[in-house]
């Protein structure tokens, strides 16, 4: 009986952290799906997804299928959601609490969203895009970066709304 109580107390923070990471991943996936809307409306809006998939597949963006681009795009959303949960958890221990929003502190939440949006934009625009096929980088890098910036901001807005709602259950 005492062992059960000790094990329950010892695992509760771990379970809470794992739940937070899983819900962060889900929030990132939802935000990536929401991000599909502006990407689909922009001319060449899915180019960033094709470019990212081409880097992972070590091929040119023209040789990447729509399915592969979508898998990479939504997988990146999942990972960005996990990053959000990690940054949020770290921020909550550093940033003074201001106001609770769905179970998370507003200021720590905004810091986490800002870090994630900055990271996903910078990672794609300055690491992935230059490594992709030289043709896109040389001919369309400014346009592709602009598309990615707009899409990243939509991702951040969706994450800012969805994450507190999901994390309220932890």
Automatic annotation (TrEMBL):
Keywords: Membrane, Transmembrane, Transmembrane helix. The chain crosses the membrane at residues 15-35, 76-95, 107-129, 149-169. The keyword Membrane applies. This is Uncharacterized protein. The lineage of its organism: Archaea, Methanobacteriati, Methanobacteriota, Stenosarchaea group, Halobacteria.
């Amino acid at each position: 009986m005492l062992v059960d109580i000790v094990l329950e107390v010892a695992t509760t923070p771990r379970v809470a952290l794992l739940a937070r990471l899983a819900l962060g991943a889900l929030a990132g996936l939802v935000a990536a799906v929401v991000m599909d809307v502006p990407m689909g409306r922009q001319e060449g809006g899915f180019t960033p997804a094709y470019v990212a998939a081409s880097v992972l597949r070590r091929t040119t963006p023209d040789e990447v299928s729509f399915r592969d681009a979508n898998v990479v795009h939504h997988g990146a959303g999942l990972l960005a959601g996990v990053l959000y949960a990690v940054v949020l958890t770290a921020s909550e221990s550093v940033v003074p609490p201001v106001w609770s929003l769905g179970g998370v502190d507003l200021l720590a939440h905004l810091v986490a969203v800002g870090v994630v949006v900055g990271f996903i934009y910078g990672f794609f625009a300055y690491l992935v895009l230059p490594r992709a096929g030289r043709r896109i980088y040389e001919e369309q890098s400014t346009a592709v970066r602009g598309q990615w910036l707009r899409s990243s901001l939509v991702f951040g807005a969706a994450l800012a709304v969805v994450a507190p709602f999901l994390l309220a259950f932890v």
